[in-house]
Amino acid sequence: MRSVLGLDEAGRGSVLGPLVIGGFSIDDHRIFRLADLGVRDSKLLPSDRREEIYAELRTLGDCRTVHLGPARIDTAVAKHGLNDLEITAFAELVRAVGPDETRADACDPNARRFARVLKARSGHPAPVKARHHMDRDDLVVGAASIVAKVERDRAMERLAAEIGEPVGSGYPSDPRTMEFVRRWIASRGVQSAAWLRQSWAPTKRLIRERSARRLEEFDR
């Protein structure tokens, strides 16, 4: 038997909440069961189906995650190192699992370089395969995408509960999210928003708008 580890992420483009790296490892002779479950890229599944499959995945293999918070993301972006931060988290899961083979959805434009760096960063001798959109055509990476997405959604639900109001999906394309962020920044600024990625362009724009309004009010 050989163990295969799949890796993917969820929440990379969000303006708030964590970037979640998901890992799923399984013995290779059981991979066919992922097809029977209906595993595929998490973006192609409704949330309730993702939850159902996730529960089954926990009985078939090993599900793991690494959560990267906004502060770590902002620090990485300031150094133009978001890909580097993500690959470091991928490598953390490779070391923790110690698989016979790793398969990863590449975040680097050069997938071969991504695989090479991931293997070196992990310090693990097993081979690494990486491709773009691997969550679409590899069952183990598709399973990892479900792990990452479900845990990311749960993190967003906890965040909404802590804040005490809906925050939407967290993505800039979500009007509910951007309206929430706009109101928060306008009334409270960003100092109390540890869940907000301040390095993101939509966030910077809202901060500038608030500063401009405050300056106008001061000049009156």
Name the features:
Arc Repressor Mutant, subunit A, alpha/beta, 54% helix, 2 domains, 220 residues, Nucleotidyltransferase, domain 5
A few lines on this structure:
Helix content is 54%, strand content 15%.
What report would you give on this structure?
- With 220 residues, the protein is α/β, with parallel strands linked by helices.
- It has two domains: 3-159, Nucleotidyltransferase, domain 5 (2-Layer Sandwich); 161-212, Arc Repressor Mutant, subunit A, CATH 1.10.10.
- 54% of the residues lie in helices and 15% in strands.
- It has nine helices and five strands; from the N terminus they run E-E-H-H-E-H-H-E-H-E-H-H-H-H.
- The model has no long low-confidence stretch (mean pLDDT 94).
Give the topology.
Layout: E1 3-10, E2 19-27, H1 32-37, H2 47-60, E3 62-68, H3 70-78, H4 82-97, E4 101-105, H5 111-122, E5 128-131, H6 134-137, H7 139-163, H8 175-188, H9 201-219
Parallel strand pairs: 1-4, 4-5
Antiparallel strand pairs: 1-2, 2-3
Report strand order across the widest sheet. 3-2-1-4-5
The fraction of residues in strands falls at 15-25%
Succession of helices and strands: EEHHEHHEHEHHHH
At the fourth level of CATH, the homologous superfamily of the largest domain is: Ribonuclease H-like superfamily/Ribonuclease H
Provide mean pLDDT, rounded: 94
Report the strand count. Answer: 5
Question: From the coordinates shown, what is the CATH architecture of the largest domain?
Answer: 2-Layer Sandwich
Q: Radius of gyration, Cα only, in angstroms?
A: 19 Å
Give helix % range.
Answer: 40-55%
> Describe the biggest sheet?
5 strands, mixed
Uncertain regions spanning at least 5 consecutive residues: none
Q: Span between N and C termini?
A: 74 Å
Q: Give the overall silhouette.
A: globular
CATH fold label of the largest domain = Nucleotidyltransferase, domain 5
How many structurally independent domains? Answer: 2
CATH class of the largest domain: Alpha Beta
Quickly count the helices: 9
Summing up helix and strand content along with how strands pair, one would put the structural category as alpha/beta
